[in-house]
Amino acid sequence: LQSVRWYLRYNLSYRNLGEMLGERGIAVDHSTIYRWVQRYAPELDKRCRKHLKMTNDSWRLDETIIKIKGKRRYLWRAVDSEGNTLDFLLTARRNSKAAKRFFRKVLQQPHVQEPRVISTDKYVIYPKVIRELSASGELEETLEHRQVRYLNNIVEQDNRFVKGKVKVKMNFKNFWSAQRTIRGYEIMKSDSKGSSQRGAQRRYQGTDLFHQENLRIGGIRQGSLRGCFVTSIKVTTEPRNVRSNSNQHRGLNFAT
Length: 256
Known about the structure:
By secondary structure, this protein is an alpha+beta fold. 39% of the residues lie in helices and 22% in strands. Helix 1 (2-9) crosses helix 3 (30-48), helix 2 (14-23) packs across helix 3 (30-48) and helix 3 packs across helix 7. It starts with a helix and ends with a strand.
């Protein structure tokens, strides 16, 4: 599970992780790591959501292009005015039907407040969708919709985290693996931003982030990170010094 976290959090390919584990004496093929990510990324997203702190009532919405097998697909994302992630949705089309699906998905999340104001870019479908959802009672009639581009800078900058990973990893090959992998990207991003209840308190505490709470994933009991992420590595704050036999005459020490 540590390798799954590394893949989801950092700009590493499956082959990079295979080499890193090989250097640690663990022989793992890159295709095996791919299967681990597909299996555990959705599970991590599911288990971590209950640890997300409440967002505020000022939403920022945007959609960005993700290429899957050379074709354009659309990733809808929303954050609040403090940058905390509300939710995301990957769709094949960019139209009013997809926008409604996204709004309804966000509104169902337990950590999301009913919006007082929604800021979007000037894409033409947003006013129509918001009017229809307000008329149906899914959104408040007093909701303020602002189409001011600079207000959306916070979510556009946040999009770079996912897009940067997709570019480094040479895009996705099918829609469903993309959806499962992005679920892992998003929850790791939320954790790094301090959007989880314990993540906000422990964000700058280094190895103290590994605490004693336990979760069970795939029948394996592991320690969790920041209240939600599971790791199989025990970390100590004091590194152990090891003297290399081949370099004793040089007096070189290596910390592990």
